[in-house]
């Protein structure tokens, strides 16, 4: 069971430069949240503030009743044991091989014997598809592998809160799709609270339960995915569409006049594309408890949402839920500013047509170390004609890409750990 | 930890840095007895620091002893006190030259490596990752390194003393035609065992300073890979400055507490 993270009025500056101020949000227990934002809006800084690596000027981050920004060092270390953090480039310890890197938290914080450690590490390495690379050093593997190893290390203590700092940057689209599926499945299995910092729009549209966006040195918006995906706020809309016209400029925000002119020129094209259904769990993985909790929560605050978002929420509900809460039909007119056509019926949970891996033919689903596999034993044959398990990636890519080769080992200083 | 308004007056930044440096020094002392002690890391660091310092130290020590012996030799000759050359050069080497030479090499060779190592870990987020995993980098990385610097400094100091004294003896007796007997006699008359102790004590303190300064700069480098280079540079310079200041104070105290022996 995850832990709720409450952030109240958080502000951070470096010197005279304000990064963001007055950020208030709650990461609901066990749900997946995504924090979006243009580059350089302090998303990574926000993550570091959550784990107490940076001290904000004002505000509180409350986890399990402890204010991370204002607590003793020993309390901080205790709270941090709840966290698993995936850093941007994995942040692996350069002097240890992958196995030792992933085993590090277990050896530090548990009294498990070496056989137990080996079992857990193997399980996690299998989960991220790194079996066979145990003895490689971080300097010898590619960026994507580092990321996956970092993820395995972050998950090895079964954390209650998992923070992902741009899990998809530097990964190819196929691996990103696998990673996103892995995140959803992990959430179903562990029911931990997830926060993903990213600027990948596809991730933002398919993975999270909640989305937030940092922009202009404050939190522009945070709420259920429907709220942001149907938002008409120009910056949010621009970002989710990934287009140039809008208030976000190359370096900073543009001036209002230019923005207005561009938006006028854009005319009828404006509007966030229709909502893509959320990614479901893989076959054989238990249902996500968070989905049901979130459903209750969102329905209870339905009145506070904008009409477009409200309609999107209603559309996403299964008919029986809709009937139970006495909510309108999905065919009701969509709210203001929503030009995309909303799905008029609830989609089956396993039909997620937009993901790349969906369309690949079904060949050799259980082979290959490169597959982002769930626990292989747990995988069951799928009834659908579009199984999510995927053929082995092209041979060139499936091979772990060694960088520098074995030669490097000779140059490594002894005495470095 | 809530930071109120930061004081801004000329020199505030320097004061803040100094304070943080001392805080790290205190943290190291506080975490020294904390289990589990990173014995493996400690041994590896000792081996590494010793490896990079032994040869340069020996090579520096011989000419250092020789220069002192030659200088003193010509001076005492003019004064007609040639018999005291031995005592004077031994005192100068054991009390002053040897700890300083040791510390310069510990900080120049060992400290710069420590600083670069920690700095590159910092910019690769390894230090942050370690903290997030609930492991104190000070206890895990800094304490073994500082201890290793101290131990190696003490041992090196012994070596420099021996090599320096032998070098001094060689140059005085062989090159300047001094009498071996007089050299040895004055040696025994003026030098005391406490001179060795104070030399070793200085080496211990200097090793600690070199280790802490290197670790501090390494853990707080200016941003970017270039920052690590700057941090290494600064750590060596700051250590040198601190060494001479601390050396002055320790010498002053020592001379007050143990006044020079009279014949």
Q: What keywords describe this structure?
A:
heterodimer; A: 417 residues; alpha/beta; Rossmann fold; six-stranded mixed beta sheet; four-stranded antiparallel beta sheet; 15 helices; 10 strands; globular; B: 263 residues; mainly alpha; elongated
User: Mean of the pLDDT scores of chain B?
Assistant: 86
Helix content of chain B: over 70%
* Count of the separate structural domains of chain B: 1
CATH C-level class of the domain at 5-229 in chain A: Alpha Beta
Order of helices and strands of chain A: EEEHEEHEHHHEHEHEEHHHHHHHH
* Rg measurement of chain B, Å: 21 Å
What is the percentage of strand-forming residues of chain A? 5-15%
The CATH topology of the domain at 5-229 in chain A comes to Rossmann fold
Distance between the termini of chain B: 59 Å
Uncertain spans of chain A:
332-345, 351-371, 373-382, 395-409
Major sheet details of chain A:
6 strands, mixed
Reported for the largest beta sheet of chain B, the result is: none
Q: Using DSSP, what is the number of strands of chain A?
A: 10
The helix content of chain A is 25-40%
Structural category of chain A is alpha/beta
Which oligomeric state applies? heterodimer
CATH architecture of the domain at 5-229 in chain A: 3-Layer(aba) Sandwich
Largest interface: A-B, 33 and 24 residues
Overall pLDDT confidence of chain A: 75
Counting H and I runs of at least 4 residues, what is the number of helices of chain A? 15
H/E element order of chain B: HHHHHHHH
Describe this structure in words.
The complex is a heterodimer of chains A (417) and B (263). Chain A is of the alpha/beta class and 417 residues long. Chain A contains 15 helices and 10 strands. Chain A is globular, with a radius of gyration of 22 Å. With 263 residues, chain B is an all-alpha fold. Chain B contains 8 helices and no strands. Chain B has helices at 12-31, 39-79, 85-123, 126-132, 137-175, 180-190, 193-219, 224-257. The radius of gyration of chain B is 21 Å and the shape is elongated.
